[in-house]
Amino acid sequence: MKNTLCCFVAVLLLASCASTKNRKIRKEIGRELNDRLLDNQFTGFLVMDATTKDTIFCKNHLKYFTPASNTKIFTLYTSLQVLPEKVPALKYLVQGDTLFIQGTGDPTLLHPHFQDSTAIDFLKNYEHIALYLNNFNTAKFGAGWAWDDYPYYYQVERSGFPLYGNVVTVFGKDSIQAIPAYFKNNIVAMEYPINREADRNLFYYAADRTDTLTVPFRVDSSLTRVLLETVLKKKVQIINEFPEGDKELLFSVISDSVNKRMMVESDNFLAEQLLILAASSLSDTLDGFRAQEYILENQLSDLQHPPRWVDGSGLSRYNLFTPQSMVHVLQKLFDELPRDRLFTLFPAGGVSGTLEDWYTGDDQPYIYAKSGSLGNNYCLSGYLITHTGKTLIFSFMNNHFLRPSSEIKKRMEAILELLRDTY
Questions:
Q1: Residues 285, 103 contacting (CB under 8 angstroms)
Q2: How far apart are CA 375 and CA 297, in angstroms?
Q3: Which domains does the chain have, with CATH numbers?
Q4: Where do the TM regions start and end (predicted)?
């Protein structure tokens, strides 16, 4: 009885110490967030212990924010829940001497980074190829995307059968070169305010440039056919109806290789195509909204504050998410994936991707998180490893500030370091 009483008292003392420590942490964070620097912006912050699920700090965590690329956390979760281990590259059916194919939205085929040719090698085995493109039911640009961002890599057109990442890569010293080479004659060697005309595939690259330029191209069925014919060195027929029959699947790269690049490099094109890929695994219709509906109605039906989820990348300012929803999904990922796999899917502070220059640890990273940036908005959501070895899950959202984002990041870094050092 005496031993039991002693243990009970010890537990109470430990709980009291923990409670006192947490109060001090909350007070210090509150003081930082009440600084005049943050007066004219909207800030939300939620931090939880990943193991105990105790809330360490919260402010405006139930309010909706423009998340920017934090939206990719929801896209990542959808991809991990729906896609198989390898990316579905094609759906196909063989009838007689003809191979009938339709796209899945696979972004890796001849992509400048992945340079995957699985589908090309497969197609070369058939003399007669019929391509069906009418299963793509998604607008090329998302709702709320900026109309004048069309010539920049971060706003590549979405499509059902992407080739070369839907971009042309221009480079050269002595002479201008292009990948795919089909566009070489579409490049004008002159200095010009824009990289491409808005309504056609006419590109500009100054003759004295020595860097590499990556520009989205306009996608249509005729161009897709020509690019495919060029690489296959054979004719491809565009068809309006796909024949009846059981389709088979061809797979390409490991899905996590796409997930990781999407998250670490914050690649908007890959994010958009991952939602389309997820839709292809649910039905024959390539509509990213179907994948969003599915995941919200099933695996994320327990969200207390369902988001306004408009696209896969976070380019749209129509997106609205709460810090609590972000933490909810991050907690699911933490509970469902091994740590060594989960953390490699996120940028590491001071080491990789969009966090390479921020949130540097002592001898190893202490932050594994997804950043999100739009004009006057900066958000960061992910995982924090404390000096005591605990894992915290957080979502830190800042909207509508007018100061340089570097000042906001410095204040965030101070708060995150406080959690690292004291919890």
A1: no
A2: 32
A3: 27-77+286-422 (3.40.710.10), 78-282 (no CATH)
A4: none
CA gap 168, 201 in Å, rounded: 10
- Separation of CA 197 from chain center: 27
- Cα–chain-centroid distance for residue 51? 26
CA distance 363 to 229: 51
Q: How far is CA 268 from the centre of its chain?
A: 6
pTM of the model: 0.93
Q: Give percent helix, percent strand, percent coil of the chain, each to the nearest 5.
A: 40, 25, 40
Per the CB < 8 A criterion, the answer to whether 378 and 372 are in contact is yes
- Decide if 87 contacts 251 (C-beta within 8 A): yes
Q: What's 108's DSSP letter? A: T
Q: From residue 292, how far is each of 282, 308, 381 by CA, in Å?
A: 11, 10, 20
Q: Give tens-digit pLDDT for 114-146.
A: 989 999 999 999 999 999 999 999 999 999 999
Q: What is the pLDDT of residues 342-391, one digit of tens each?
A: 999 999 999 999 999 999 988 899 999 999 999 999 999 999 999 999 99
377/68 Cα distance (integer angstroms): 8
* Cβ(299)–Cβ(81) below 8 Å: yes
In three-state form (DSSP H/G/I as H, E/B as E, the rest C), the secondary structure along 46-68 is EEEECCCCCEEEEECCCCCECCH
With CA atoms as reference, report the closest residue to 366 among 385, 343, 382. Answer: 385
Q: Angle at which helices 71-82 and 268-282 pack, to 10 degrees? A: 40
What separation in angstroms does the CA of 347 have from each of 356, 369, 383, 412?
A: 8, 6, 10, 16
Residue 214, H or E segment: strand 213-216
Averages of pLDDT over runs of 10 residues in the chain (423 residues) are: 46 47 84 75 96 96 98 98 98 96 98 94 96 96 96 97 97 89 95 95 93 97 98 97 96 98 98 98 96 98 97 98 98 97 97 95 92 96 97 98 92 95 94
